[in-house]
Amino acid sequence: MAQSNGDHSSAAKPPPTPSPLRFSKFFQSNMRILVTGGAGFIGSHLVDKLMENEKNVIVADNYFTGSKDNLKKWIGHPRFELIRHDVTEPLLVEVDQIYHLACPASPIFYKYNPVKTIKTNVIGTLNMLGLAKRVGARILLTSTSEVYGDPLIHPQEESYWGNVNPIGVRSCYDEGKRVAETLMFDYHRQHGIEIRIARIFNTYGPRMNIDDGRVVSNFIAQALRWVYFS
What we know:
Distance between the termini: 32 Å
Radius of gyration: 18 Å
Pfam family, one: GDP_Man_Dehyd
Protein name: UDP-glucuronic acid decarboxylase 1
Subcellular location: Golgi apparatus membrane; Golgi apparatus, Golgi stack membrane
Helix content: 25-40%
CATH superfamily: NAD(P)-binding Rossmann-like Domain
Number of strands: 6
Number of domains: 1
GO cellular component, one term: Golgi cisterna membrane
CATH class: Alpha Beta
Function: Catalyzes the NAD-dependent decarboxylation of UDP-glucuronic acid to UDP-xylose. Necessary for the biosynthesis of the core tetrasaccharide in glycosaminoglycan biosynthesis.
């Protein structure tokens, strides 16, 4: 989990009042969880685990990079709800936890529509934080190793601020995630929102798009096609 750095001497405000059932066994077995980007590669695996743990899951996805096929085994299940929704628009639901994964993570997709990418990171995160504030939910943001940019130290500690180009072709994603992290900590300090941030590095596995332009998928695709590694 990413930690704040620098001098933040002022204490965070107390969190919004959650449901009185938050810590009861009844609550744990009836927890409602929102997963944005839940039809994507990583999001769909998270949904699988939550459903297997008998949670009530709401997925919000606009299918820009995700696919309904990734969730087909849960469609129609009484504890599962799938909403076609773009997180740049407010979402009015009542939930106890939010996993905010929605954002194109493939260089091919975010270079194709950089404005959409940064709007998803910034406006989408603002909308999810606003929801968390309204309902008193804990929120987790999936960030990225790209917040370190082209790091000047190896390995990188969480306290490293990074070396990022603010105007490059990747900046819509890199800087968008950095702003999203800033918003998370600002809402925590100003409004007492309970937050988590996970900076995800190169990931691969079932349901990944082999042509999404990321280093691991490129490596595997080139090996399968007997192409020289580049």
